[in-house]
Structure formats: C-alpha cells, structure tokens
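Handout, page 2. Input:
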Amino acid sequence: MNMLARRMRASAVAAALCLSAAVPGLAFADPMRIAFGDIATVESLHLLAALERAKEKGVDVQVTFLKSEDIAAQAVVSGQADIGIGGPYALLQKVKAPIRIFLQLSKLQFYPVVNTEFYKEWKDLNGQEVAVHSRGSGTEAIMQLMADKNGIAYSNISYVPGAEVRTGALLQGNVKATIVDSSGKRILEKEAPGKFAFLPLGEVAATDEALFANTDYLSKNQKDVEILVESILTTWREVAADPTSAVALREKYKLLPDATPDMVADIDPYFAEAAPALPLNGGGEDAAKDDFDFYTISGALEGNAADLKVEDFWDLTALNAVLAKIGTK
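Output:
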C-alpha cells in the first residue's frame, strides 16, 4: 500500500471518530454539537487540540464528521447540530437561514492543479470538468473566479470533499483538474514530479473555513461560545509562534491515533507553511469585508460588496468579548 493510500485509509478511520468523551470530574450542561463537513486529518490537528482545551474548561464538545460542508450547514439549520464548520455565505444570503458566522478559522490557501498530460494552463480548461470540495465552498469560489478572470467556462463542476481525496484522485487518474491544499501539493510534487502543473492564482484574501451557528444558540450559550473562541484563538497563536507545537499538542491530547508515520511526518511541514496565514484575531469585521469582495466577484454572493452589511452575516459578540480579554495580535 503506497503512502497516499495509507494516508487516505487513516483519514477515513479518523473521520468516524466522535470527540464526545467527557472530562472526569466536570459537570456539563447540554453538549455543544459541532458538525464538521470534512474528515479529521493533519490539517485539522490544531482545531482538534483547541476543542480538547474547550473541554478542559467545561464545555462538553461533541464533534461529528460529515460528508460535506453542505450537510454540516443543513445540520445546523435543522437544529441537528449547534455549530457548523465551513463557509455558509451563499446559504446566508439566498436562503436567509437564521445563522451567523462568529469566527474565522482559516483563510483560503489552495493550489489549482492540472494533469499536464491533458492541460497546461487556464485556457485549456475551457469546456472541461473540474473538481472542488463542495458546493458554495472556497475552493469552488476560487475556481469560478479564475474561470471568469481567464474568460473560460467549465463543462461541469464535480464535488469531491476532502483535499486528500482530490489529491488521490489526481494520482490515480480519476481527476484531471482540481484544487488542493498545501499538503496535497507536497504529495503531488513528491509522488509524481513533473506530472502536474499548479496554475497561477494571484492574491486571494478570503475565508476558507469559519464557525457558524444558529442565532438563537449564540444568544443562549454565550459563555460556552466564548470559551470555544478563546480556546481556538490561544491555540492558533501558540501554533503561529511555534509551528512545531502542533506535534506536542497531538501527543498531549492523543489526537489522530490512527495516523500513519507518513501523516505524522507531514505535521511539521504543514504547519510551518500554514502558521503564517492563521487568523490570530478570528477575522471579524475586516475578514467579513474581504469576504464580501471575494465572494461577490466569484459569484457566491450577489450584489455589490459595499452594500453588504457585516451584521447580516456575522455575530461578533463572542469574538469581541474574547479579544477584549486576551488582546489582539
């Protein structure tokens, strides 16, 4: 079994995990049910550590890993989950769901890639199929934006959740054009040097993943939400200051127990590259305005960016309270 196959199998096993173990000696109220529309991998290690820290502070965090961001968002809207992870801008505007983003977890850091046996540059993708993470995701927005910038139109957009899955599909020849994360980029360069070309993207400043919740949940569970936000921001700052701390966090909280040696070896290089882009202040109003600019251009949001109101998409109550406590970076 090759390296990628082992990574994918370990990721699939990790995806089945539910982080619901209570901390001994603490009495919990209702659990905080988080829906994550992806699989648990090295890329989510710092988030898993932050959730463990929230548990230590008395929040009964329960995470369910789902097939896609769409399903995670539906779980939040329907009340089956309290908090979702993803980028629900289109859902907020088009469905007017009673949810709000309250914390930016990551910014877009992706690499459009093609199999050079078939394509060499953006114009070669005119009339061709591309694969992205999920409907309404940042990966879809990037690919739509680049199609517009390069005057092309895809024949179809297929949805393949998980950057590692898309990376594997490229190596196996099942996908010819897609978009991967930094880990996938390193795998492609190592496993098949010269076979794939990474297309120019230019500067992109927008949210990749964020935390969002029903407005009712945010107002009724403000203390727990603030604990969650603080746990995440302090973890982000720790990893940004020392990317090697991610390995120590994994060991401390016994995270990703089924990770292969190859996955463990990828932790340091992944966070060395990702750490400088971590949003240390949770995004907030500035992130929302960047998102309006990006997602209106890409088509995920309708209207003029200047006309969109932050309060229609974000609830900054918990974030502002936490920043007042721990300061800004």
